[in-house]
Specification:
The structure is a homodimer. By secondary structure, the first copy, chain A, is mainly α. The first copy, chain A, has ten helices and no strands. Chain A has helices at residues 3-22, 29-35, 40-43, 50-74, 80-101, 103-115, 117-140, 149-159, 166-169, 174-192. The longest helix of chain A has 25 residues, at 50-74. Chain A binds a DNA duplex through residues 3-4, 7, 28-30, 38-45, 49-50.
DNA sequence: TGACTGAATAATTTGTTGATTATTTACCCC
DNA sequence: GGGGTAAATAATCAACAAATTATTCAGTCA
């Protein structure tokens, strides 16, 4: 970790405190700079602008979450199908909670979604690579009947996009969303599993409860 | 058709002209009233407000489109699977074109989506009933392996929500969207079809071109 | 009584001005 | 040159009056 990285982290940390205390719009670059004992202008040596700091915080958050998910999801004890489903349910629940509990987080999500549509795609791409990994494992052990793992991950993500930023795309309750995700996955997995493989029945059992 | 209905239609027609000429925000209730040879106040005897007129136009549009789709989709010559897919592709293409070609239509769509989230759900519900119809036909002739037709329609809609208001949820091109819809449906249909039924292979053939 | 008007009211938008704030730039220090 | 400052500039925001527009309502007409 270079010196520059360390300062970036300091800025991100200070900004995160401010944002989650007072909200994105209500905190000024000067305040963030003060908290880091530097001048406002100096912030621009580390971030292109205010919105990029917010992006940095968001990216760090999903990176951390995905890292944790990666551990769980690599557990070879569970069938790939179950791991994939648990992963998608976990994503739904944790983002829902995150946006639901804190209006200041929601504010940032809304602004980034509006001003930086590309950012959302980058996050989706990160998720997709984890999904591809699970799919590949499932294809290798005969659970799934898949030609192109990357393409399939793309399609599963496309079919479950509604559950990615729940409050941004619909007004549904978490219960309703979980019900729908369950139903969608039931069909998708039925379509993906090798009928001859015994794990196919797992598509019908209820999802694992959140930890 | 009652006298009242006739006047409603006249108002809708006049408003549609204005909206598509000058945009929703730029047209005033007075102008619509003038075009109908009535006073502004009188409009409120037929519609609750300006936004309700816009809703009326939108509802009429989808009703017309769904009616046409219903004819095509009831054609028993095609397998249910093909009919369902053609329907979904047609929806994607026609809404995409509609929103893409005319910024004034897009303006209305955005405003309704924001101010009247329930309206979108009503339209979805209309679409769902047509989908249920196709699914029921497919279940009856042994193409599909479905327990609950209504629930399944809900899940298919959920998995394809991204293609419903394409420009509102993503920035993708029509080509990319069509590619994704095709991929999603391939998996979904693979999950829904009876493996024993010969039509299952249709899930792999390219979608019918638009008329 | 039902269809309508037009003035009254309430909400929203527009235009303007003076802060604030984000961002850039010219410069300093080690 | 890396790391920083502080003043200059450019955007954006808040406030508030003026004007426009949406909506309501008392009252007219057939």
């Amino acid at each position: 970790m270079t010196q520059k990285d360390r300062i970036c982290l300091r800025i991100l940390h200070a900004a995160k405190e401010r944002f989650s205390h007072y909200g994105y719009c209500k905190t000024t670059m000067s305040e963030i700079a003060q908290d880091c004992n530097m001048s406002p202008g100096n912030l621009y040596r580390y971030f292109q602008g205010k919105l990029d700091i917010a992006e940095g915080i968001a990216a760090a958050h999903t990176d951390k979450r995905l890292e944790k998910a990666r551990e769980i999801v690599r557990d070879p004890a569970k069938p790939a199908l179950v791991r994939l489903r648990d992963f998608l349910f976990d994503e739904l629940r944790s983002t829902f909670k995150l946006l639901d509990e804190d209006p200041r987080v929601f504010e940032i999500a809304e602004i980034i979604a509006k001003e930086r549509p590309e950012f959302g795609n980058q996050q989706l791409s990160k998720e997709r690579s984890l999904m591809s990994e699970i799919l590949a494992a499932g294809a290798a052990n005969g659970e799934f009947d898949i030609q192109d793992v990357v393409e399939t991950a793309e399609m599963i993500q496309s079919a479950t996009i509604k559950f990615r930023f729940p409050q941004l795309y619909s007004q549904l309750t978490l219960d309703k969303l979980e019900h729908e995700l369950n139903g969608v996955l039931k069909i998708l997995f039925h379509g993906l599993t090798c009928r001859s493989h015994p794990i196919a029945v797992a598509a019908d059992v209820p999802v694992s409860p959140s930890p």
